[in-house]
Amino acid sequence: MTPTDGTPTSQSPAPTPAPDELPTTYRAADVESALYARWQAAGTDVAHAERVTRMGGGRDPYTIVMPPPNVTAILHVGHGLNNTVQDVLIRWRRMAGDEALWLPGTDHAGIATQNVVEKQLAAEGSSRSALGREAFVARTAQFVETTGGQILQQLKSIGASADWSRTAYTLTEPMSAAVTEAFVRLFEDGLVYRGHRVIHWCPRCMTSLSDEEAEFNETQGAMYHIRYRLADDPSQSITVATTRPETLLGDVAVAVNPTDERYAAFVGRQLTLPINGVHIPVIADDYTDAAFGTGAVKITPAHDPNDFEVGKRHALSAPIIMDAEARMNGMGDDAHRVPPELRGVDRFEARERIVNMLRDQGALVKVEAHQHSVRHCYRCDTVVEPRLSDQWFVKMAPLAAPALAAVRTGRIRILPERWEAVYINWLEGIRDWNISRQLWWGHRVPVYYCDSCGAAPKASRTTITTCPDCGAPARQDEDVLDTWFSSWLWPMSTLGWPNMESSDLKAFYPGDVLVTAPEILFFWVSRMIMSGCYFMGDAPYHTVYLHGTVRDMQHRKMSKSLGNGIDPMDVVQLYGADALRWTMVAGMGLGVDVLLDPTDLEKSFAPGRNFLTKLWNIGRFLLTKVGTEPVQPLSAIATESLTIADRWILDRLDAAIGEANSALGPVRPGTGGCWTEAERTAGMRLDAYADAGRRFVWNELADWYLETVKPRLAAGGADAEVARAVLVHCFDGALRVLQPVIPFITETLWAKLPAISDGSARGTEFLTTSAWPAARPARAEGGDAFELVRNAVLGIRQIRNEYKVKPGKSVAVTLLPSAADAAPAPLLAETIGALTRATVTIRGTEGSPAAAGGASAQQVLTGGTEVVIALSELLEAESAEDTAKECARLRSELDQTQKILDGVRAKLSNESFTSRAKPEVVDGARAQERDLAQKVDALTRKIEALCGTR
RNA sequence: GGGCGAAUAGCUCAGCUGGUUAGAGCACCUGUCUUACACACAGGGGGUCGGGGGUUCGAAUCCCUCUUCGCCCACCA
C-alpha cells in the first residue's frame, strides 16, 4: 500500500456527525459495511426460482454464474474488475424487474491447491508421499476449510450482490455427483477413452497436463548437431539436429524424407547411437522435412508426440529413458539404454554431460543458437516433458460441433467480437482433452478395474468394491480429473444438474451472460458451451463478455512476482468500494485493458473518489435546500408551471436514461433466441453507461440546473415547490441510474430524499431493489430554449475571461437573440444574469448592434444569437495596446471564419453534394452557412466599431 | 509459420454503415476560497487522425501497400 499524504477520508478520525448533518466529504468507511449487512439481512440479493416466468412466475430470469476463484485465492484487482462488471449487470437487471441470480462459488483448483499444501509439507520436512493419499487429502481439505473462501468475504466488501445462499464449491457432494455423472455418461457414449500416447508431463507437479495447461514460452536454446555413424561402416554417418540431445538415449530410428536423395543409400541400414551404442535403423518417412536442419530426424517415440506417431507407423518400440521426475532412467528391458553414470541424473544436468560426452567422442558436429517455443507448466512454470503414458481423454470433435454452431448461428455472441474468430479457429482444430491427472486433490476418476478376472474397466456412478463379474475386490482408478472437468459443468451443476427436476435448473438455465478474461476462453468458456450443449441441449448463456486486464503504467500485467499489484482492500479502505468500482468501470472500454498505477493509489483512484465527493456534495446541497418536507409528485405539477430550466433538466434526465439503456444494450436476444447482426455487438458498454450518469448529474444537474434553481428556492412560494419537486425527481432518477456502479453512496443518499406528498413513496425500502428509471411518457415542450441560456452564459463568461474582468464585477450585457420567438425574455435575462454577474437586457431581433452603443465586444453564438458587452464595461482603463491586441485578434478570427464559410459555400454549390448527401446533412450545412455568414457580418461590424474602417 | 487486431491531443481512449470547424477523461496553462463541493468552479492551449498510394464531389472512416506494436494459435526436429 502506498501512503498518500493527508487523505481526510480515511485518516482523520471520523467525528460523529450530528444527525441530519452531512460531512463535506463522503466517508465510505462510515456506511459501506453496515449497509451491506442491511442488504444481506433484507435478502435483497436472493433470487427466487418460483418468481421466474419459466416456473409460472412473472419475471424474466437473468442469470450470471460467477467464475469461481480458486478456493484459497486472495482478492486481487483482476477479481475486482471481473466481479464489478458482473455486479453492475446484476444490479441493473434486478432494478429492471428481472429475477436476477448471481451465483457465487469457489473452485478446488486441483494442481494449484495441492502445490500450496505440498509446499507447506516441504517446509515441515514432510511430503505428500510420506503422508499417504488419505492423510494428504484430509490435510488439504483441512487447509481449505480454515483458509478457503476468504475471497468471497472480500467480494462482499467491494459490494458484490451475489446470492450467497447458493454459494457453491466444486468439491462438495452435489458437485462431485455432477462430475461423476458427466464422466460416466461420456464414457457410456464412447466419448471418454483410455489413450496410450505422449502427453505433457510436469515433473515437478508429477502429473500430466492438457495441451492448454502447457503454455508456450519463447526460449533461447541451442540446436545440437550430432553425428550417428553407420554400424557396418563407421566412416559414414548421418548428422541429426535436436534441441534435446539427452533424448538420444531413447532413439529408435533416424527418419529421412523418402524423396531426399542425399540419404537414399542409408535407408534400411543400421546406425550406432553414440554413448549407449544401441543400433537403430534409418527409415524413410514423410514427416521429415528435407529442407529443415540436416534433413534427418532422430526418432524418440516415448519422448516426443510426433516421434510417437512415426514410431507407430513403423512398428518401432518406445523405450522410456526418463522417470517421472525427469531423471535419466531406463525401464525394464530398456535399462541398458541409459549408461550407469547417467542414471538418476536430472534431465538438464544430463543434457550438459551428454553434450560433453558427444564432444569427447567427436560426435558433436556443431551447436548453434536456436530460438524456439518451450512448453511450461501453467502452475509452476517448470519445463514440461513429453512423456508416454496412459491417460483418460475426452473425444472433443463431437462436442465441438454444436458449440461452433451456437456461435455461428448467433445463439451466443462473444464480445469483443474479434474473439469469435479465435474461438471458432480453436474449436475447428480441437484436439482430444486429456482429463486425468496424477494428483490426489480432486475428483477421483470413477472407473473401476478388476485385477483377477480381467474384465473391462467400468465407469460407475456409485462406488464399486467388488467385481460384478467374478466377485474379487475391485480397484478404483488412482487418478483424479482435471480441475476444469468440474469447471466446465459449473453453469449446470451449481443449479442442481444432473437433477433435471431441480427448480433452480428449470428456472435459471440457460443463463444470460458470462463475464471473464480472454485467458480462459479455451480452458473454460468454450468447454462450458460444449458441455451445456451436450448435457442440457442448449448453451449455458447468450453472451460471453471478455474484459481486459488490469495493468500497471508500463502495461505490465499486475502480478505477485513483479510486485506491481494493487490490493483492492487497500483501495476500499482508503476511498471506499464505490471509488474502486467507479474507477474501474469508467476507465474500461469494451475489452480494453484498465491501466492503474500501483505506486500512486491517490492518482489512480482520483476519478472515482472525486466523482463520489461531487455526488455527495450535490446530495448535501440538494437535501439541505430542499429540506425534509414531502415534495409533490411530478405528475401533480401542471405543465404551465414548469420553467424552461425545469423542462430542460427533465429532458436531460430522460436523455441520460436513454443513453444508459442503449449503452447497456439489449438484455437478451429477441425472438428466436438468436442475436441479429445488429444486436450482436450492441450494448455492454459499461463505461459509456457510467459516463451517461456522470454527465447528467455533474455537467447538467449540478453545473446548470442547480445554479438556476438557487434563487427560486430562496424565493419560496409555489414556484419553489415546483423546483423542489423537479430537483428531487431528477436526483432520484440519477441515483437510480448510478446505483449499479456505486451502490453504497447512492443508497445512502437515496434514503435521505424527502417523501412524495401523495404517499406514493418510492416503492421499496432500498434503492437496490427499487425500479430502474424510465423516461416520462410525455415531455413538456420548450426545454430547448434553455440552450439559449447556456449559450449566452458561455459567451458572456468567455468575453469576461478574455478581458480579464474581475469575477466580482458585474457588467451590463445586451443579448440579441436570432430567433424572434425567444421565450419569456425577462426570466431568461434574470437566469443568465444570475449565472454570470451581469445585468442582461434582451432585445428583439430588430435591435441593432449599434443600439448597444459605442465600442463593444461581441460574440455570435451557435444559432446566431449575439452577446454584446460595451468595452467600457470590460476595460478598466481602455488602453491603445488593449485595443490593438483585440483588433488583431478579431481580424484573425474574421479571416478564419471567412475561410470556413467559403468552404461551406463551395460545398453547397456542388450539386453532387446537395443531391447525394443525406438531407439532414445538407440542412446542417445550410444552417452552418447562415451562422457563419452572420458571424462574419458581426465581426466586420465589430472591427469597424473598435478599430475603424480600413 | 498461420490467423486476428491496433496505430487519432503529453497519457488512456470515443469517433456507428464515408458528410457541420475530429471529441472525452486525465495531464498542462490562467484566474477564482462565488454561502454544496479547491476531491471544486470558470476560461484556455494542444491533433498535417502512423507513412505512401488509390476510390469519391467529399476519407480518421472504404481499398491497396509499407512501417511499428499487441494478441491468439502451431508437432518444424
Question: What does this protein look like?
Answer:
The chain is an alpha/beta fold. The protein is 42% helix and 15% strand. The strands form nine sheets. Strands 7, 8, 9, 10, 11, 12 and 13 form a seven-stranded mixed beta sheet that branches. It has a four-stranded antiparallel beta sheet with strand order 6-5-14-16. Strand 10 and strand 11 (279-284) form a beta hairpin. Helix 2 crosses helix 25 and helix 3 (77-95) packs across helix 18 (577-586). The relative contact order is 0.09. The model is unreliable at 1-20 (pLDDT under 50). It binds one RNA strand of 77 nucleotides through strand 8, strand 12, helix 9, helix 12 and strand 25.
Total of helices: 32
Task: Report helical residue fraction.
Answer: 40-55%
Distance, first to last CA: 67 Å
- So what's the overall shape? elongated
Tell me the radius of gyration: 37 Å
Strand content: 15-25%
| Total number of beta strands | 29
Characteristic terms for this protein:
single chain, 950 residues, alpha/beta, seven-stranded mixed beta sheet, four-stranded antiparallel beta sheet, 32 helices, 29 strands, disordered N terminus, RNA-binding
What's the structural blueprint in terms of helices and strands?
Blueprint lengths: L7 H4 L16 H15 L18 E5 L11 H19 L3 E5 L1 E2 L3 H14 L4 H4 L1 H15 L2 H8 L10 E2 L3 H16 L3 E11 L4 E3 L4 E17 L6 E6 L10 E4 L13 E3 L6 E6 L11 E4 L5 H9 L33 H15 L2 E14 L7 E10 L2 H12 L4 E3 L2 H11 L4 E2 L1 E2 L9 E4 L7 E2 L14 E3 L3 E2 L1 H5 L2 H4 L9 H6 L4 E4 L4 H16 L6 E4 L3 E2 L16 H8 L1 H10 L7 E2 L5 H4 L1 H21 L17 H21 L12 H4 L5 H30 L1 H22 L4 H8 L35 H17 L8 E6 L8 H12 L1 E5 L6 H4 L3 E5 L5 E5 H4 L5 H30 L1 H6 L2 H29 L3
Parallel strand pairs: 1-2, 3-4, 9-11, 15-23, 22-23, 24-25, 26-27
Antiparallel strand pairs: 5-6, 5-14, 7-8, 7-10, 7-13, 9-12, 10-11, 14-16, 17-21, 18-19, 18-20, 26-29, 28-29
The structure holds one RNA strand of 77 nucleotides.
